[in-house]
C-alpha cells in the first residue's frame, strides 16, 4: 500500500511530484510495442532540455534493460529514483536489472544483489499496487530464486493471483512465462492458448504462440504462420511476427515469398532487422543457401539490435557455424570468438568455439 502522509504539505508535495514526473505516454507505448530505439530518442531529446528529467532517465533505464545493458539500466534507474523516489516503474526496472545481474555473479555477491532486486520489485508494487509489470517481475523472481534469496513458488502463485484480479489475460501470460522458465513447453502452450481465448486482440499472445510453434519442441509451421498472421493483423508495425514468417519461408525454400516478406518487414520497422536474423538462422540450420544466410546475418549486424531482440553475439555465433560448414575455419573461429566475447555466459557459442579449435 502507498504510504500515508499526515502533513498536508507532504501530501501536496507527493501530488506535485506525481504530476511533474508523469510517464511520457508516447514513449511508454513505443516501448510496450517493442520500439525501444524510438523511445530512446524521445528520452534523449528530453534530457537535452532537462538533465534531471526523471521520466527520461526511466525510459533510458528500460531501454538499456531491454538491450541487456544491465549496468546502464541500473545507473539510469537509480538516477531516476534519486529525483523521483516514488516512481514505481523506476524501482521495478532497477529490481529487474539487479535480478539479472545476480544470475551472472558468484553465489555470495549474487545473493546480496538478488535480495536488493527483490526489495526494489516489492517496493515498486507497494508504490503502485496495480502495476502488472511489477507483479510479473516478482512472480518470475519468486519462481526462479532459491528460498535463501526470498524465492518461493507460493509467493509466485500469490503474485499470479494478484495479476488475475487486475487482468486475467496477463495472468495467463505470467503463467506461460513461468512454464517457459521451467522448460515446460506443454504448460507454456496451455497457458498461451488460454490467454488467446480470454484476450484474442493481445498482440503479445499471438506473437508468443507463433514463436512457440516455430520452435523445435512444437515445430508446426502451419500453426506458427496462423498466429503470426493474427499478430500482424493486430499490429503490422512490429517485427516479431514478420520474423516468424520469414523463418518459415526460409525453411520451405520459398525465396520469392521470403524476399517479399523481408522487404515488407523492413518498411514496417526499419529499426528492427530481426526478420533477417531469423531467416538467416533458419538457413544455417537447413544448410540450403549459405550465401543467402551469410547475407542476412551480416545485414542484421549492420545496425544496433533493437531492444528485446537477439544480441549481435547470437548473429556472430550463427555466422561462425556457417563458416565452419563452408570450411573457412579461421573466419569461423573469429566469429565464434566475437560471440563469446560479447556473450560470455552463452554456453552454446563457447562449446562450439572449443570444438572448432580442437578440430
Give the topology.
Blueprint: H1 8-20, H2 25-32, H3 36-49, H4 54-66, H5 70-83, H6 88-103, H7 107-127, H8 132-144, H9 153-166, H10 168-181, H11 185-198, H12 203-214, H13 221-234, H14 240-251, H15 255-268, H16 274-286, H17 290-301, H18 312-325, H19 329-342, H20 347-358
Overall pLDDT metric: 92
E-strand count: 0
| Strand proportion | under 5%
List the secondary-structure elements in sequence, H or E: HHHHHHHHHHHHHHHHHHHH
CATH uppermost class of one domain: Mainly Alpha
Q: Largest sheet, if any?
A: none
Keywords: Signal, TPR repeat
Pfam family, one: TPR_19
Organism: Koribacter versatilis (strain Ellin345)
InterPro entries: TPR-like_helical_dom_sf (IPR011990), TPR_rpt (IPR019734)
Keywords:
single chain, 359 residues, mainly alpha, Serine Threonine Protein Phosphatase 5, Tetratricopeptide repeat, 20 helices, globular, disordered N terminus
Please, could you describe this protein's structure?
The longest helix has 21 residues, at 107-127. Mean pLDDT is 92; it is low at 1-20. The protein has a domain at 17-166: Tetratricopeptide repeat domain (Serine Threonine Protein Phosphatase 5, Tetratricopeptide repeat, Alpha Horseshoe). The chain is mainly α and 359 residues long. It starts with 7 loop residues before the first helix and ends with a helix. The chain has helices at residues 8-20, 25-32, 36-49, 54-66, 70-83, 88-103, 107-127, 132-144, 153-166, 168-181, 185-198, 203-214, 221-234, 240-251, 255-268, 274-286, 290-301, 312-325, 329-342, 347-358. Helix 6 (88-103) runs antiparallel to helix 7 (107-127) and helix 17 (290-301) packs antiparallel against helix 18.
Amino acid at each position: 500500500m502507498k504510504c500515508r502522509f499526515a502533513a498536508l504539505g507532504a501530501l501536496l508535495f507527493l501530488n506535485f511530484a506525481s504530476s511533474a514526473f508523469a510517464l511520457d505516454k508516447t514513449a511508454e507505448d513505443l516501448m510496450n510495442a517493442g520500439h525501444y530505439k524510438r523511445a530512446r530518442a524521445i528520452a534523449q531529446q528530453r534530457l537535452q532540455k532537462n538533465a534531471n528529467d526523471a521520466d527520461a532517465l526511466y525510459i533510458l533505464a528500460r531501454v538499456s534493460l531491454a538491450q541487456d545493458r544491465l549496468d546502464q539500466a541500473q545507473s539510469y534507474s537509480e538516477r531516476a529514483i534519486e529525483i523521483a523516489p516514488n516512481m514505481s516503474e523506476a524501482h521495478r526496472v532497477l529490481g529487474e536489472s539487479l535480478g539479472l545481474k545476480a544470475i551472472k555473479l558468484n553465489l555470495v555477491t549474487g545473493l546480496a544483489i538478488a535480495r536488493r532486486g527483490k526489495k526494489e520489485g516489492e517496493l515498486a508494487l507497494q508504490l503502485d499496487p496495480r502495476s502488472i509489470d511489477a507483479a510479473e517481475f516478482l512472480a518470475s523472481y519468486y519462481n526462479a530464486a532459491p528460498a535463501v534469496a526470498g524465492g518461493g513458488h507460493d509467493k509466485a502463485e500469490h503474485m499470479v493471483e494478484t495479476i488475475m484480479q487486475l487482468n486475467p489475460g496477463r495472468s495467463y501470460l505470467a503463467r506461460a512465462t513461468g512454464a517457459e522458465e521451467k522448460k515446460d513447453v506443454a504448460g507454456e502452450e496451455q497457458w498461451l492458448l488460454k490467454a488467446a481465448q480470454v484476450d484474442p486482440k493481445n498482440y503479445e499472445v499471438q506473437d508468443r504462440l507463433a514463436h512457440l510453434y516455430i520452435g523445435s519442441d512444437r515445430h508446426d509451421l502451419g500453426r506458427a504462420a496462423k498466429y503470426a498472421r493474427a499478430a500482424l493483423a493486430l499490429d503490422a508495425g512490429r517485427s516479431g511476427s514478420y520474423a516468424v514468417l520469414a523463418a518459415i519461408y526460409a525453411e520451405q525454400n520459398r525465396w520469392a515469398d521470403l524476399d517479399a516478406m523481408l522487404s515488407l518487414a523492413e518498411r514496417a520497422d526499419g529499426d528492427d532487422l530481426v526478420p533477417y536474423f531469423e531467416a538467416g538462422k533458419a538457413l544455417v540450420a537447413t544448410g540450403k543457401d549459405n550465401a543467402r544466410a551469410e547475407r542476412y546475418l551480416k545485414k542484421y549486424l549492420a545496425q544496433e539490435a533493437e531492444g528485446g531482440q537477439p544480441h549481435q553475439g547470437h548473429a556472430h555465433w550463427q555466422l561462425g557455424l556457417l563458416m565452419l560448414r563452408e570450411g573457412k575455419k579461421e573466419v569461423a573461429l573469429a566469429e565464434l570468438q566475437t560471440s563469446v566475447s560479447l556473450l560470455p555466459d552463452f554456453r552454446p557459442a563457447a562449446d562450439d568455439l572449443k570444438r572448432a579449435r580442437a578440430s
